[in-house]
Design brief:
The complex is a heterodimer of chains A (540) and B (314).
Chain A lengths: L1 H13 L1 H25 L3 H14 L14 H27 L2 H5 L2 H6 L7 H27 L4 H28 L3 H24 L2 E2 L6 E2 L8 H6 L11 H22 L23 H40 L1 H12 L4 H34 L1 H6 L5 H31 L5 H13 L2 H17 L4 H18 L7 H6 L8 E2 L2 E2 L2 H20 L10
Antiparallel strand pairs in A: 1-2, 3-4
Helix pairs in contact in A: 1-7, 2-4, 2-7, 4-7, 4-8, 4-9, 7-8, 8-9, 8-11, 12-13, 12-14, 12-16, 14-16, 14-17, 14-18, 14-19, 16-17, 16-18, 16-21, 18-19, 18-21
Chain B lengths: L2 E12 L2 E12 L3 E5 L6 H8 L7 E6 L8 H5 L2 E4 L11 H11 L6 H14 L13 H14 L4 E5 L7 H16 L3 E6 L2 H7 L2 E6 L2 E7 H5 L3 E7 L5 H4 L6 E6 L2 E7 L3 H11 L5 E3 L3 H13 L5 H7 L1
Parallel strand pairs in B: 3-7, 3-8, 5-6, 6-7
Antiparallel strand pairs in B: 1-2, 1-4, 8-9, 10-12, 10-13, 11-12
Helix pairs in contact in B: 3-5, 4-5
The chains are: A mainly alpha (540), B alpha/beta (314).
């Protein structure tokens, strides 16, 4: 028991800044967004209209939630919950991996395991620590909602649903930490789980059955395989039904039990996938530093490219869905078209939205590539390369080059997958052109994040990993969800994602894109040039 | 003789810590130069500056007459480096890492010679190149760096505690390789705190302490700085007569043996006196670096000499 307390204190101390930032941001965002929603959609008539529009088009629901009546509480739940769930999910997943596989990978876990704390207790401590963090988040969310004048019962159900999603992602994070040998792999799987949960419930909502008054939707089955879907099923403020959260409890409990089972049978530091003898000589790829940079990132690029392809498929298949709505309910389509952006057609707007997400994937990919440069430096392998005749500048420039290639690959996969679905559209050629244009339009924003990550690496190397991920996370949230929550225009404009060129009618305004390419090139050049003066900064 | 490595008044600070505090080091072409000092004396920092991995805060360092920071990658064509703690790519095999490093160093011109050297070294070091980087022990990771360093020809070898983690058998292989490259005319800077290794391999030695040079010279020069220890059996001896031995210091009698130390250049002078006494069980132990080392650092082994007091002295 004493050891458990020591381990818990150690975890709390190690996370005191990182976790505080997550928890406080989630609390503040809940408060601010609720106030903004309440201010923007003050009267029930306005909310009714918005809900009916959303339900009529349904695809919009992918990015919101399950409509459950026009009361302010239910409306806030509809607008905010899935988004908060993603944040708390990421927080919990990173927390789980940080205190399990990351420690094990760096050999710290071994040090702890050799004390009376043993191999299992540290995991118990991580579970307790993570659950406590999630309970704090849930309570803060509930308090932020109550502070905005929403009723207490519904607010606590809302909070409990947030906590439940967090707990699920915590358990999943611990589970993949058992499977993967590296924290990078485990974190990637954790993020994929959270994004997957978001998308599944989005599909569930979009494909759900609307009520006659177009104010409620009964989600389709995909929602029921998503922890975020379980949270939404509580129907906070209306049904206040805690039973769906039992699913989260059972799912987490089973996963945690599996984690303990796996941990008690496997060796410290090992993963479940056994190693086999590799090649004795290097292949032709490992002959230059750019080949090395490519090889180190190829798995990451392949994973994000798969994500891009899924996004591309989603874009065109949703477009044909919109076509149906357009022909069934032309009035609704008209209104929606207006609200989504003036002259842009519904398809164009939808394509831009979905490809906005694909753009985020490409950005995540280049961020991870920049982070790899930092990991090479911290791990000491960059030093090995730099003691050969590879110039420092060239070494970092190679990561930039691989980042550019990765951007093109992820977006090309998205566009190609999208083209598969184009055939069924009313005007395939036009849609195909738009598709390609919209995909190209995402290149600049990825270049910006590539440049930014390398710049952080150059000047704040030790902060590279948290800062680069936070930048892409925060700015993506701001760019995609900011307008939904009535964030001030200047703030939304800070996000590069706001400026991705969007095809409107037959033309595309590339101004924003050209600016971003400029910014991307300048930041990258500054970062690479800094290597002229910069010493290697070891781990820590 | 041309100078390969030259530092003058080299200073390197990390925040408030002075890692190097005016180091002078000179290594001539073709020499195997021992670089000695206790942990934290600044050996690795010096080597990192010579490699252009770290930038000098003050003073001057040149390698082959060039600035190692600005001309790093050109110089690296002529340098092979083995760090004391080798990091490998966890998902590359040892063989892949060896090839990668060698190719980056530019083995391309003579592939067959490289392959032959690599195979020979892999066999000599009894190394399994098919395992993943993360599964190697410290000694095996060390072998990766050693094999790739010795498999490609270089003019200068910078070896930073290269044998840490190797077993004594492998140390012999290492010694052989150093002797081989030295014979071919390469220059070697060997940082170590294994004195026997340095005594066996090096012609010249520099000892550093607290970021400054404490001693430098050939082994013979340095030996003159210490005393030879003479000991013999007390059997049938009158301790009183020993006072007659000229130049004897620290005379001690214990466990039936008389021992004293004497300046190394006076050893032959006392031999007639010892012959006259007809001593038995005579041993004469030449000075070792160990003693030199202990003499130089002995005062620091006492109450962990604080940095502050060092700075007062300098």
């Amino acid at each position: 028991m004493n050891e458990l307390l020591v381990l818990l204190r150690q975890r709390r101390r190690r996370d005191r800044f990182q976790l505080a930032v997550w928890i406080i941001s989630i609390g503040l965002l809940t408060y601010a967004s609720t106030a903004s929603v309440a201010g923007t959609y003050g009267d029930e008539a306005g909310r009714t209209q918005i809900l009916q529009l959303a339900v009529a088009t349904r695809t919009v629901l992918v990015f919101r939630g399950t409509p459950n009546g026009p009361s302010l509480g239910a409306f806030v739940f509809f607008e905010l919950f899935s988004w908060l769930a993603v944040m708390v999910g990421l927080m919990s997943s990173f927390l789980a991996v940080r205190h399990s596989r990351a420690d094990e990978e760096l050999g710290r876990a071994e040090l702890v395991a050799s004390t009376p704390a043993g191999r299992i207790l540290p995991t118990v401590a991580t579970v307790v620590h993570g659950l406590l963090a999630n309970v704090v988040v849930g309570v803060l969310v509930a308090l932020a909602l109550i502070a905005n004048g929403l009723d207490a019962a519904g607010s606590f159900v809302f909070g409990a649903a947030v906590t439940a999603v967090g707990a699920t992602c915590l358990a999943f994070g611990l589970f993949v930490a058992q499977l993967f040998r590296t924290s990078r792999g485990a974190n990637g799987a954790g993020v994929a789980f959270v994004i997957g949960a978001y998308i599944m419930r989005g599909i569930g909502d979009a494909a759900g059955t609307p009520s006659d008054d177009l104010l409620h939707v009964t989600p389709a089955w995909p929602s029921w395989i998503s922890p975020i879907g379980w949270g939404q099923a509580t129907g906070a403020y209306v049904r206040n039904d805690l039973r769906p959260l039992l699913l989260a409890v059972v799912f987490s409990a089973v996963l945690v039990a599996v984690v303990f089972g796996l941990q008690s049978v496997r060796d410290q530091g090992a993963s479940l996938i056994p190693g086999r003898p590799g090649r004795a000589n290097a292949g032709p790829l490992l002959s230059s530093s750019v080949g090395l940079a490519w090889r180190l990132n190829s798995t990451v690029i392949a994973s994000w490219a798969v994500g891009g392809a899924v996004g591309g498929l989603l874009a065109t298949s949703l477009s044909s869905l919109v076509d149906e709505v357009g022909s069934e309910a032309p009035d609704v389509a008209k209104v929606l078209q207006g609200s989504l952006g003036g002259a842009a057609s519904l398809e164009q707007a939808l394509m831009a939205t979905v490809f906005g997400i694909v753009g985020v994937l490409a950005c995540c990919c280049v961020v991870q590539i920049g982070i790899r440069a930092r990991q090479e430096e911290a791990h000491g392998t960059a030093e090995t390369v730099l003691t050969t005749p590879v110039p420092r500048i060239r070494w970092l420039a190679d990561y930039w080059l691989v980042g550019v290639l990765a951007t093109l690959i992820v977006l090309a996969c998205a566009a190609l997958a999208g083209l598969v679905g184009v055939g069924r559209a009313a005007d395939p050629d036009a849609l195909a052109t738009e598709l390609v244009e919209t995909a190209i339009a995402q290149i600049p924003v990825a270049l910006v994040f590539l440049g930014l990550t390398l710049l952080v690496f150059a000047y704040l190397p030790r902060a590279t990993i948290p800062l680069a991920w936070s930048l892409v996370g925060f700015l993506a949230m701001l760019g995609i969800f900011g307008p939904l929550f009535g964030a001030p225009k200047w703030l939304v404009n800070v996000s590069p994602f706001t400026h991705a060129p969007v095809p409107v009618g037959d033309s595309v305004d590339w101004t924003g894109g050209l600016w971003m390419i400029g910014i991307g090139l300048v930041t990258a050049a500054l970062a690479v040039a800094s290597m002229r003066r910069r010493e290697l900064v070891s781990g820590g | 003789m041309t100078t390969v490595i030259q530092t003058r008044d080299l200073v390197k600070t990390y925040g408030r810590v002075r890692a190097l505090d005016g180091l002078d080091l000179s290594v001539s072409a073709g020499e195997v130069h021992g670089f000695l000092g206790p942990n934290g004396a600044g050996k690795s920092t010096t080597i990192r500056i010579l490699l252009g991995l770290a930038r000098a805060t003050g003073g001057e360092a040149t390698v082959f007459g060039e600035d190692p920071w600005r001309r790093a990658h050109e110089l690296h064509r002529r340098i092979a480096y083995v760090p004391g703690d080798v990091s490998l790519w966890p998902n590359f095999t040892g063989g892949e890492a060896i090839d990668l490093i060698a190719r980056l160093r530019g083995d391309g011109k003579d592939k067959e010679a490289y392959l032959e050297r690599k195979q020979r070294l892999i066999a000599a070091f009894e190394f399994d190149p098919r395992k993943k980087g993360r599964t190697y022990s410290k000694g095996n990771r060390q072998k990766v760096a050693l094999i790739s360093a010795f498999a490609t020809p270089a003019e200068l070898y910078l070896l930073d505690e290269p044998t840490s983690g190797l077993d004594p058998l492998m140390e012999q292989v290492f010694n052989r390789e150093v002797a081989r490259v030295a014979e071919q005319g390469a220059t070697v800077l060997l940082s170590s705190h294994i004195l026997s290794e340095v005594e066996q391999l090096c012609n010249r030695v520099t000892i550093i302490r607290a970021g400054r040079m404490a001693e430098t010279g050939t082994l013979a020069d340095l030996r003159h700085l210490t005393r030879t220890e003479v000991a013999f059996s007390t059997q049938g001896q009158d301790p009183g007569v020993l006072t007659g031995v000229p130049g004897a210091n620290d005379v001690r009698i214990d466990n039936g043996r008389v021992s004293f130390t004497i300046d190394s250049d006076r050893v032959t002078a006392v031999l007639p006196e010892l012959a006259r006494l007809e001593v038995t069980g005579l041993t004469i132990k030449p000075p070792s670096l160990e003693e030199l080392f202990l003499r130089d650092y002995g005062d620091e082994l006492a109450p962990a000499g604080t940095r502050g007091s060092r700075e007062v002295r300098s």
